Every structure is written in C-alpha cells, then in structure tokens.
UniProtKB/TrEMBL annotation, chain A:
PANTHER family in alphabetical order: GAMMA-GLUTAMYLPOLYAMINE SYNTHETASE GLNA2 (PTHR43785:SF11), GAMMA-GLUTAMYLPUTRESCINE SYNTHETASE (PTHR43785)
PROSITE patterns: GLNA_ATP, GS_BETA_GRASP, GS_CATALYTIC
UniProt keyword annotations, A-Z: ATP-binding, Ligase, Magnesium, Metal-binding, Nucleotide-binding
Keyword ATP-binding: yes
Keyword Amino-acid biosynthesis annotated: no
Species this protein is from: Arthrobacter koreensis
SUPFAM superfamilies for this protein: Glutamine synthetase, N-terminal domain, Glutamine synthetase/guanido kinase
Cofactor(s) in the UniProt record: Mg(2+)
This protein's name: Glutamine synthetase family protein
Family: Belongs to the glutamine synthetase family.
C-alpha cells in the first residue's frame, strides 16, 4: 500500500464516499464503469478487480475473458454532480491480464507505450484539445427528422439568459471541481454548438480529462434538461463537431518545436513531426475519425480539413501552425484539425504522436505549406500542389489502415485487429441501411 | 658488473633511455650502490629514475635522502616508482618533499578523520566548529584546499606503499581516503558558504540554511579508491526561510561544493562530485529537504535505489541533519526486500552485472568483468538486503565488514567468507595500485609487460622478496576471478543446503525462515516446497547426497534463472532418484558446467523432455558433448534397427526395440534442439528420418511375420504424405501415409490384396499397441492414411494398377495437391519409382485448368471457415489460422500445381525449398517469400515449443504470460520477452496473410 493508495482510502473514509466508480475505456472510446463499495477498494488496489473482458468491445480475445482492472490512485476524484448526499468518486484503471501484465488491448496502455517511446527519444508530449459539441433539446429528432438545438446563436454571440449560458457555467464549475482547468469557452458557428478548451497538459492526462469531460458535459446537460452530443456531424447544414488538438514536444524545459529566426519559428524537429503526421494521416484517419458519420464532417465543406496540407493560420489546412505572441517560444505548437469529438482520445493521440515521432526518426521532409483556401482550388490544382485527399468514407479509411505497418506498430497487433474488425462491422451494418436521403431523392421518380 | 646487467637486475625496461638519465648532471657524484639499492624498491624503476632526476633539479636537497642510509630514501623511491602523478605534485609544490623523510613502518597506521577535517578546514582558513565558514574564497581557496588534500594523499600513499601487507591495510586505506574526501567536501562547503554570503544572497539567509552531504557508493561505505567520482546526495533544512529561497540557496551551495573541488584553477581539480544517485537522478532537484527525500523513497524509488542507500552515510555538513537522514532511510532500506517486484529486479540486476561491458575491455576489467569486484559487492549487498530485515548485525556499510557479519551470522560459510574476503581485498589492492600511477580513474588491467611487472611489484607489499613477474600476476588474477565467479554462483545457495541437510557444520546457522526468504528472493515461487526437495537431495551419508551437496548451490542458481524454477527442481530430484546410486551423472555435471546449465534450462522449461529423461536418465550423458547430441543419420539408425531385428526374431520384441530407439532419438533431437545446435529445418528432417526408420523397420518385421505363415504374394510400399512427405514434422506428429502394393507376377490379385492388407494393418498395430514391458513416456507413432483415394471409405491399401485406374477416372484437384507431398518412405524401391512415375503427371499436370484453380481456392476458403475450432481466435491458430502454416503451404502448392510441369526445379515435397524455387523462377517476389518463410518457420517453431513445454494444445499460440514466456525462451528470445514474441507472431502472420491473399486468391493482383 503506497501513500497515494492510503490517501484514497482515507478520503473515502473522511468524506463518507458511498461508491467508487472504476473507469476505463473500450477500443471505440466509450467509457466503461464498474461501481465498487468502499470496502472493496483496498482489494482492488492489491489485486485488481476481476471482470469479464469478453463483454467489452475489443478488449479481450473471445476465449480469454478474465481481465483485471487496476485503479490508478493518482486519478482519484470525487464526482461533484452526485451531490453531497451519496458521495461518489472515480478512478481511471489500467487493464491487466490475469497474470498482472498490462493488457495489450487497453487503449490507455497503447498511449502510455507511445509516450514511453517519446520519452526514450527525450521528449514529453503536451496536448491541448478544443472540443466542440452540440447542445440539443433532447436525444430525439424533431418533427422534420433533424435534431433540435437549444438555441440559434452564432459564433461569439452572447445569448442573454439562455439555457446554454446556464449549462456552460455549471459545466465549467463542475470541471474545475474535478480538477480539469478550462481555458476558454465560446459559442461556435452552429446553432446550439459549444466549444470548450481544456488547458494544455501531458497527453495521457489530457486523454483522461477528455473522457471525464465528456461524462461531465453529458451529466450537466441532463441536469439542465437538455442533451449534449459529441456526434461528429449531427446536422447536414451546420458545421460538424471537431476536436482540434494542439501538440507540442518538450525536451526538458525547452519547447522542441521552437527555433528563433526559422520560418514560422518552426524547428527542424517540428517540421519533421508535421511531415510524419501529414504522410501517415490517411493511414490513421480510421482512428481519428472512426464513425460512418465522421466522414460527413470531413467532407461536409465549411472549414473541415479534407486534404493533406499545412499552413500558417490557414483555416482550411489539416495541420495548422498557430500564431503566437512574439517571445513566447514556449507556446510553439501545431494544431491537428482532423480529429472529431467522438474519437477515442487515447488511440487518436497515440497514432498522431507515433506518426510525428516516425517523421522525426526518419527525418521526413515537410512539403511546402499552403496559403490558399484548399477547398476553393480545383481538383487538378490540388493534385498539382500535392494536396491528396483524406479517405472519403469509413470504408476507404479501413482499407488504407489495413495496409499500414505504422498504425499496426503503434496500436499493437491486437488492438489493430480488434479495431479494424469492429469498424468493418460498423460499415457493413451501415451499407445495409436505406436512408432518408435515398427515399426522398429516388422514391418519387423511380 | 656492467651497467646494462645492473639495470636489468634492478628491473629497468628501457635500458637506453635509463642510461641517459643516469648520466644526467643532477645525479653526478652520487653513490651508484645507494642509487641502485633504491631503485630495487621502486615498482617501476624507469619511471622512478626519470622522476628523480626532475625532482633533484627542482629540489636539490633531496640528494641527502638518496645518498643517506637505505631506510631514509625508501619512501622516496617507493613513491616515485609507483606514481608519476604524485611526483608531479611534489614538483608543483616542493614544500611537500619533506614528507619523503617519513620512515616506513610495516603497519601504516591511520590519520583520524577529525585531524583531516581540521587540516582541510584550516587550509581555507575556516574554524573547525559546526557549520564553519571559510575566510578564503575563489581560486585561492581552491588551490589551498586541493594542495592540502594532495599533501594528505601523498602522506597516505607513502604509508600504504610501505605496508608489509597491502591486503591487510586495504580497508584502513579505503577508510582514510573516504575520510579525506569527506574533509575536502567539508572545507569546500565552508568556502561555498563564504562565496554565497559574499555574492547573491544575504549572509543571514545563507547561514540559516543547513546542508548535509550524504556520501553514497564507496565514499559512503568508507572504502573509497585513490581516485574516483565521489557520489553524494544533498539534504537541506531551513525551517525559518521561505521554501523556494532555501531551495535556491541550497542548490547554489551544493553547486559551489562541486566548483571548489573540481572547477579549473591553477592546481588541478580533485575529482567529480557526482550527485546523480539522488531522487529522480539527473532530472531531479539537486537538493531536497529530508521530507522530500523520504516522500520520494516511499512512493517512487526503484529497488536498486535502496541497494544504493545501503551505503548512505553523512560525510560532511550539518552533522545532526545528516544523522536524521541516516536514521530515517534505514527502515526503508531494510524493508525493501518485501516490496513488489523485488525478485524480478534482483534477477534483472544479476543479469545486468554480466551484460553491458564493452567486449574489447571484458577481459581486462577488474571491476565489472566476470569474477570482478562488482560480483562480490552485488552478492554481499543482496544477502544484506534479504537477511538484514531481521538481523540487525548485517546493517553495516563496508564490504569487508559485511562479509564478516554474514559469516558471523551464519549466512555464508566461514570458508566461503574467507575466500570472498581475500579475493575482494586482492582485487581492490590491484585497483588502488593501477589508479595510483597516473591518479586516473580506471578499472582496467594494464596491457604492457613493464606495466604489469610494476603492478606485480607494487601490489605485493614492501617486504615481499619474490621477483616481480607479469605472468604470475595474471595467473593470480585469473585464479581470483574464477574463485569469485564460483563463489558468486554458489554462495546464495550453499548455506541453504546446510540448513536443509541438518549438517552439523558449526559455521552455518541459517534458520528455515531465512532460508525460505532467500529462495523466494531468487525466484522460487514455493520456497517451502523447494526446501523439501533440497532436503531430500542432500540428506544422508550416501556418495550421491555428498555430491549433490557440492553441486546444488550452482544448480539452484541456474534453475532460478529458468522459466519455472520450482518445476525444474522437482524434475532434477526425480531424475536424480531414477538414477539411483550411479553417480557418473553428478560427476559429469561437476566436470562440465555446460552440461549442468543445459540440464537446468531443460528441466525448468520442458515437461516433455523431463519426462523422457526420467525414463532414460542415462541419456543425460549426451549433454556433456555436442558430438553426442548430433542426430543419428537415417542410415545409421536403420543399421542399428536391422541388427536388433536379426538378434530378436520375435516381432513384438523386435518392434519394442525399434520403438525404444525411436524414443531415444526423439529425446536426442529435443536435447540438441534445446542446446541450440539445430535449426528448425534440421529438427524437422531429423524427426522425419527417425520416424521413417521406425516405419521401415516395422514393415520388415511385419512382412517377415506374415511370410512366415504363407507364401509372399506381393510387394508393399509405404508412401509418406503431408509434412512427413516434406520431411518437416514436429515432435510427436502423426505420419500421413498411403499404402501401395504390387502383386508378384502370377500371384492371385485377390489373395495379394488380402496379404497386403494384413501387412499394413500389422505395421500400424505393431507401432501403436502397448508393448510389454511398456515403452514409457513414448509418443506413439500413429500412421494416418486418410489422404488415400476415396478417403476413409476407400480400401486401406491399393495395388499400383488400382491407383492408375482410379486416377485415370477420378483424379480430383485436391488429390493432385496432396500428391505434391508424396515421397516413398519404406518398402520396395522399384515399386516406389513406379509409383512416382504414375503420380508425377497428376501432381505436375501439363495444364492445370482454371476451374481446378478455382476448386482449390474454394476448398481452402471452406477449410478456413469450417475447420477452425469453434470460437477460436484465427490470429492465434498456428496451423489453420491467419497467415499460419497452411496459408503458406497452400500457396506454395497451388503454384506448384500450376507451374511445376514447366519448371522441374519446383518439384520438391518440402515447403521452404519450394519457396526458394518459386522465388528463383520468378513466380513470387523475393520479399514476399521472405515474409512467408519467416511466418512458416516461426509457426513451426512455436508448435514445437508447445509440445516441448507440455502444453495442452500444440496448435495455438498460448495467451497466459507464463506460457508465452516459456515458448519465447524456446524460440530464442531473452527472459521476459513473452509479450514481444506475441506481438512479433501477430505481426509476422498478418503480413504473411497479406501476401497469401494477394497471390492465392488474387486480391489486388493485376
């Protein structure tokens, strides 16, 4: 029993916590939760908590279903929305095989492994996500078949006394209560759309925070009688919900992406990292954009980044080098704009980091940046300038990923296979659907 | 006597140069007698002469010493012959030459720590009370401190070199060096304080920060070398100051210490002050408060860090704070053996001790090489950690004191302790003398003959009369290394035996609890059970028990390194018991460590081999020599069987002997495989030949038996199919066969068919029936004729004509495919040739129709979906799974069917040669065949490993870590690499599947 574990047990005692939820994530990125009575926590620290892994998507091989969840005491938090009556708390877990080894199928472990690789190369990875989501009246569509947003405000609009206002205030204070600092929040372009930025932190903590964040947002929405969705593209006519993420690598105290005097102050390391991401982006798109619906966002126009390109403050580029105040070399970073809000953050960050590190290892050359709005170029122009498209559907993305040695290496063979199998099943199911679009367009004329 | 002879007699090496120096004006008029009687005492007379001439030039008064009585000059000559660096120091600071007037004593005595401390503090004009502050600062202080330090060093070297027995003196010398280093740190701290107060910080604030310097490593243990990095950790305490200010002052103060000791100044620096053993190593803050240290050790520290703390001692700075630190970490150190992962990290450390030495230095290493100082230190520290938890007398820092305490407490035998102690002291003296020459941090044996000779002399003690000799030095050193190596391996276990066997040897008193703690620390999961086995093996007065008492200490170590030490020990006990009183086996292990190590590795990893060894323990003898492990050729096996058959005409008896030979050869192959003598392909061929000999022998027996009662009507042929056809089977595989016969001219077809059936049935039953007495632990050879025409519905044996008729009428694509592997195995040679002529046009068809290609693809697809066990994960199925054996083989066979007619090079029954031929003929790209080959070999290897370790299902990649670990070791991975094997297998087979799909189903081609 170490100090942190003791701390958890003491807090449970002192605060009279009634339930301890153990959280972990399946391959798709859904949060799974097991509730423990306080008396069982000590045992879970010592030996882990046994559970049947076969019921969890992509976690266990079919014939090897016994798994252990071992809580990480450093992630202990009291959950504020449960109120003071029945105090509930949570801890994230690592998934172990019955003999106590890290399970190769645990997404959290996949990210940890990639971070360890970065550490071996001398880097610490920091990330900072901007998470978009829609606030709806309910999870049921309205009479026209479209979801119903809570309000109809636009970018940076102030809506006096709106539901959204209450919602944001409560969400922000709850997030602070579970130790997640929120950097900035404003209204995005779509009706009912919100964006909340999480302050930058190391990649594993950010991924944990994203999982917590989604849960908090959903809970708070329920409390304020509305419904929050992270679906990549809930409306055909409004922008999708992305999870733009800023990445930076640090070597000790210094930002490895910064080089004073270089073009855009970008160091060679940064350029190689970006080159790695751009070259391998099509291979890992199935991970960062994992649903059939994700591709409606990627190809839905607007500011969605559908082509391989990078730019300095170019809002249509897949990879953006943001402006920052002169003299703030520490904040040098790059922003990947492809991920959507429904991605599994552990796997997504692992593939992005892995691709970037690959670029550094192999010394990739960064192609020239794009200054035009890529969307407005003709197909021939894009081809001429080397802006290849991202996969256009989940099916395409799966095909490309299947042939990727890099993604297999990053995810590990077991997650790689389970993930592909799961996504293929998704696609097969989708393909059988007759959609409202087809009926509307074809039924009356055929 | 000529000058040349005189020089040689005095031990000079470079005669010409030395003659020139002897003629130097500084030596003019000196008494040659006196001079030479001095050089005789110098370890390296050439060096001494050159230094002397240069010194006399600077300090003419030294001539008195040279000219005076012999004893008067002794210190001078000894130092000049042993250390160029010290001679240079005196040249830089001639006032220190007065020390050469010291008379030498056999007992060198020791300067107390407080004298050294006072002296060094005085050199920088600091008082000697607690937390003193110097009046000197900057380069002046550095020079004064360093000069004073070296003066004491010279004084110590003079006394050390004059000692009668350097080994006896070694601990005292090490202690004084550590005290001197502590005094230097103390004085440096005093200077650093003064500099800080003058500079960036407020003097009162600086005074409010208390800082303790904790010595680690050899400095902490009071057994320092003449020159080495001094390992330290800093603790601060400043209750009255703001935490961050205190931290800044403490850090600056610690950095100041380093500067005072080692920054460049007119007098060279002393040594590196190395603070990297601190919490978080290089990345951690340089100074911490006591609480912060403790927090770290409680939460984050690794096992090796506790091993390092064993040596922690407050050496300078605030004494009270230092003592508090010592008191607070002690309980952490002594409970560290109860931490999770202690056993694993101990094993990892044991491996690390021998790994990671640059190979070109390995043979010259005194410290890190096999049998080096590190081995001794590691052994002693581990035993301290394991037993010091209970027994407080073991909580000492010095290696020599720890050895004494371990011996006193009965944790190691008294004889072993004496040997270990002597070896340690000897190696340390070598190290001291080597370093002294240039005051350079080195642990390498010199290479040149003169340097070795000088070392031999300087390490021998002042009164030694033997002539120095490089050869003798190396001999003694090698002997010592071997001794340490042996002790290092045996010392953990030897006392266990004394406890287990209830020996009355007074020297060892290891309690049962202590014995179990030690076994657990060394990797035994069930120490109580292990103790029982050890008891059984060592109790009694038999010769066997006596030998085992002698051997087990080393064997237990080897077993402890294996996958499953407990199973290994049990296996050894069974083996030993089945051998009864014959002890050649133990003698062999005693005389050949390779055999012992191999045996231990096998016993811990393979149930299959352990069982075979248990029933034929005499086979253990093969482990002694690689020659005995070479698989017998088919011809010699067949010859042996024929001899047995002729001497034992009764069929049951003859076949029993054949089966015994087969079992014996299978064991031999497995042993050779485990020793890494065979490649996977060679294993497959050897096993196939072994089975072939058995079938051939049995066929002869069966024919003789049948012909004894009736006239011979027909010739019988056994044709190998499947993997046996390709000579690539695994341990205990079935043999796929077809039976063919051809009636003799004039014989009745019906009767001939009956006779052939009788013979083949007899062959099968002779091979499979239980024998009397039973052939224990045998993997029975089953003959499987399911690939025959019409499968299980068809007749078991057909005549050649019947085959011809059948193939003419029916011949299906899958049968053609199966025939690709057909190879006559036993029976009439001519019939074999005719059979092949019959099937060649079928298996190598001139035109393999597109519809047939489709048929083969369809069957394969159906096999994939139907033949896998229900619910199985295809990616872990070695044979039928994704990218496994059958994917590779089917692709090869499909291409053979299509192209072998036109390209005779493709006509082979074996998979890998066929792959090579396909690449050679351009049907598959090289890189694709490489992928397929890798996958096929790894899957074959894992199947073998599964059988060898005694797993339940040989066709599945296991998923429990323990089983994976066992398989991984068999596949040549290092310890702890089970998960790597799993990942490798999944990756390799995924790629193989990709290649397979592209070429077999034609996905993505053209």
């Amino acid at each position: 029993m170490n100090r942190q574990q003791e701390f958890v047990l003491r807090t449970i005692e002192e605060r009279d916590v009634r339930f301890v939820r153990l959280w972990f994530t399946d391959v798709v990125g859904s949060m799974k939760s097991v509730a423990l009575a306080p008396a069982e926590v000590e045992g879970a620290f010592d030996e882990g908590l046994g559970f049947d892994g076969s019921s969890i998507e992509g976690l266990a091989r079919i014939f090897e279903s016994d798994m252990l969840a071992q809580p990480d005491p450093s992630t202990f938090q009291i959950l504020p929305w449960r109120g003071d009556e029945e105090q509930t708390s949570r801890m994230f877990c690592d998934i172990l095989t019955p003999d106590g080894q890290p399970s190769a199928a645990d997404p959290r472990y996949v990210l940890k492994r990639q971070l360890a690789k970065a550490a071996d190369m001398g880097f610490t990875c920091y990330t900072h996500p901007e998470i978009e989501f829609y606030l709806l009246k309910s999870d049921q569509p309205g009479p026209d078949g479209e979801p119903v947003p809570v309000d109809r405000a636009g970018y940076f609009d102030h809506v006096p006394g709106g539901v959204a206002q209450d919602f944001r205030r409560t969400a922000v204070s709850m997030l602070e209560a579970v130790g997640i600092s929120v950097e900035f929040s404003h209204h995005e372009a779509g009706p009912g759309q919100n964006e909340i930025d999480l302050r930058y932190a190391d990649a594993l903590q950010t991924a944990d925070n994203i999982m917590t964040f989604r849960t908090v947002v959903k809970e708070v929405a329920l409390m304020t009688d509305c419904y929050a969705t992270f679906m990549p593209k809930p409306f055909s006519d409004h922008p999708g919900s992305g999870m733009h993420t800023h990445f930076s690598l640090f070597e000790g105290d210094t930002n490895a992406f910064f080089e004073a005097g270089a073009e855009f102050q970008l160091s060679a390391t940064a350029r190689q990292f970006m080159a790695g991401i751009l070259r391998h982006a099509p291979e890992f798109t199935a991970v960062t954009n994992q649903f059939v619906n994700s591709y409606k966002r990627l190809w839905g126009g607007g500011e969605a980044p559908s082509y391989l390109s990078w730019g300095h403050n170019n809002r249509s580029a897949l990879l953006r080098v943001p402006l920052y105040k002169p003299g703030k070399g520490q904040s040098a970073r790059i922003e990947y704009r492809g991920i959507d809000s429904a991605a599994n953050p552990y796997l997504s960050y692992a593939v992005l980091l892995g691709a970037g590190l690959k670029g550094i290892e192999e010394g990739y050359e960064l192609p020239p940046g794009a200054e035009d709005d890529i969307e407005s170029l003709s197909a021939a122009e894009r081809r001429a300038m080397g802006h290849a498209p991202l996969p256009s559907s989940l099916h395409d993305a799966i095909r490309v990923m299947e042939d990727s040695e890099l993604v297999a290496e990053i995810l590990g063979e077991q997650v790689f296979e389970n993930f592909l199998r799961n996504k293929q099943a998704d696609w097969n199911e989708y393909r059988q659907q007759v959609t409202a679009f087809e009926l509307k367009k074809n039924l009356s004329i055929l | 006597m000529s000058l040349t002879r005189r020089l040689i007699a005095a031990g000079f090496t470079d005669l010409e140069k030395s003659e020139r120096f002897l003629a130097a004006p500084e030596l003019a008029g000196m008494d040659q007698e006196r001079l030479f009687s001095g050089f005789v005492r110098s370890a390296n007379p050439d060096m001494a002469l050159q230094s002397l001439v240069r010194l006399l030039d600077r300090i003419p008064s030294l001539a008195e010493l040279v000219a005076g009585e012999q004893e008067e000059g002794e210190a001078l000559f000894r130092v000049l012959g042993a250390s160029e660096a010290l001679a240079e120091f005196v040249m830089r600071h001639p006032e220190n030459a007065e020390l050469f007037h010291t008379g030498l004593r056999a007992e060198p005595g020791q300067v107390p720590a407080r004298t050294l401390r006072a002296s060094l503090l005085e050199s920088v004009q600091a008082g000697s009370g607690p937390n003193p502050v110097a009046r000197l600062t900057g380069p002046e202080a550095y020079v004064q401190l360093r000069t004073r330090y070296r003066r004491h060093l010279l004084d110590l070297a003079i006394r050390d070199l004059g000692a009668a027995s350097p080994e006896d003196t070694m601990p005292a010398v090490g202690r004084e060096l550590a005290d001197l280093a502590g005094a230097a740190l103390e004085a440096a701290l005093a200077v650093s304080r003064a500099e800080l107060a003058e500079g960036a910080f407020d003097a009162a604030d600086v005074a409010a920060v208390r800082l303790a310097v904790i010595g680690m490593g050899k400095c902490g243990a009071s057994e320092l070398n003449y020159i080495s990095d001094v390992d330290v950790i800093y603790v601060i305490d400043a209750p009255d100051l703001d935490e961050s200010l205190a931290g800044r002052i403490g850090t600056a103060m610690a950095a100041g210490i380093s500067r005072v000791i080692n920054a460049s100044a007119p007098e060279p620096g002393l040594w590196e002050v190395d603070a990297n053993l601190r919490p978080e190593g290089k990345d951690g803050p340089l100074v911490r408060t006591l609480d912060s240290h403790l927090n770290y050790y409680r939460r984050w520290a690794q096992t090796w860090e506790f091993q390092a703390l064993l040596k922690a001692r407050a050496v300078a700075g605030d004494a009270a704070l230092g003592r508090r630190y010592e008191d607070a970490v002690a309980p952490l150190i002594w409970s560290s053996s109860e931490r999770d992962g202690f056993v694993e990290s101990v094993q990892a450390m044991r491996r690390r001790v021998t790994d990671h030495i640059p190979s070109h230095e390995e043979n010259r290493q005194i410290k890190l090489g096999k049998g080096g100082l590190r081995d001794v230190e590691f052994t002693v520290q581990l035993l301290q950690l394991v037993h010091g938890r209970i027994d407080e007398t073991l909580r000492v820092r010095t290696t020599t004191a720890a050895i004494a305490a371990l011996s006193e407490g009965g944790y190691i035998g008294r004889g072993d302790a004496a040997d270990l102690d002597a070896a340690y002291r000897y190696l340390r003296v070598l190290e001291h003398r080597i370093q002294m020459v240039h005051m350079r941090r080195t642990h390498l044996m010199p290479e040149s003959e003169p340097a070795l000779r000088a070392l031999s002399k300087s390490s021998a003690g002042a009164l030694a009369l033997v002539r120095p000799s490089a050869e003798r030095l190396l001999e003694t050193w090698q002997r010592t290394k071997r001794l340490v190596r042996r002790l290092h391996e045996a010392i953990f276990y030897r006392p266990l035996l004394a406890t287990a066997a209830n020996l009355s040897e007074a020297e060892v008193r290891l309690s049962p609890e202590a014995a179990q703690a030690r076994l657990a620390a060394l990797g035994y999961a069930d120490p109580r059970g292990a103790m029982k086995h050890i008891e059984a093996l060592t109790n009694g007065i038999s010769r066997r028990a006596a030998l085992q008492r002698q051997l087990l200490p080393v064997l237990l170590g080897w077993l402890g390194d294996g996958v499953d030490p407990d199973a290994g020990l049990l296996g050894f006990r069974r083996l030993s018991e089945s051998l009864g009183d014959s002890h050649w086996f133990l003698g062999m292990i005693r005389d050949s460590s390779a055999a012992g190590e191999r045996l231990c590795q096998i016993l811990t990893s393979s149930r299959f081999i352990s069982e075979l060894l248990e029933v034929s323990p005499e086979s253990t003898a093969w482990l002694g020599t690689d020659k005995d492990l070479q698989p017998s050729s088919f011809d010699s096996l067949w010859q042996e069987m024929r001899a047995k058959m002729s001497r034992h005409p009764r069929p049951a008896e003859a076949v029993r002997l054949i089966r015994l030979i087969r079992r014996r050869e299978m064991l031999r192959i497995a042993l050779a495989d485990s020793a890494g003598l065979l490649s996977q392909e060679e294993v497959g061929r050897a096993l196939s030949d072994n089975d072939r000999a058995a079938v051939l022998g049995t066929l002869h027996v069966a024919e003789n038996e049948v012909y004894a009662g009736e006239e011979q009507l027909t010739d019988v042929l056994v044709v190998a199919m499947g993997r046996q056809g390709g000579r690539e089977i695994g341990y205990g595989s079935d043999a796929d066969v077809l039976y063919v016969h051809r009636p003799l001219p004039g014989a009745d077809a019906q009767a001939a068919q009956g006779q052939a059936e009788k013979i083949v049935q007899l062959v099968s039953s002779l091979l499979q029936q239980p024998c009397r007495p039973a052939v224990q632990a045998e993997r029975v050879l089953e003959l499987d004729a399911a690939l025959r025409p019409e499968g299980r519905q068809g007749p078991l044996v057909r005549s050649l004509d019947s085959y011809a008729g059948y193939y003419e009428r029916w011949s299906l694509a899958w049968e053609a495919q199966a025939l690709l592997r057909a190879r006559p195995m036993a029976g009439d040679d001519r019939l074999g040739e005719d059979f092949l002529s019959l099937v060649d046009p079928i298996r190598y068809p001139e035109n393999f129709a597109e519809s047939d290609v489709r048929e083969i693809r369809r069957i394969k697809a159906r096999v994939e979906s139907e033949r896998l066990p229900r619910g199985a994960d295809p990616s872990r199925q070695l044979k039928l799974g994704r990218g496994g054996l059958s994917d590779v083989e089917w692709l090869v066979q499909l291409l053979q069917l299509q192209h072998a007619h036109a390209y005779p090079a493709l006509r082979t029954t074996a998979t890998l040669p066929a792959l090579d031929a396909l690449a050679g003929a351009g049907f598959l790209p090289e890189q694709d065949t490489a992928v397929l080959r890798e996958s096929w070999l790894l899957a074959s290897r894992i199947r073998c490993a599964n059988v060898i370790r005694g797993g339940r299902n040989p066709d599945v990649l296991p998923s429990s870590r323990r089983e994976l670990e066992a398989v991984a070791r068999w596949c040549g991975y290092d310890a702890g690499q089970g998960a790597v094997l799993e990942e490798d297998y999944l990756r390799i087979t995924r790629r193989a599947r990709g290649v397979f799909e592209r070429w077999f189903y034609g996905y993505g081609v053209g």
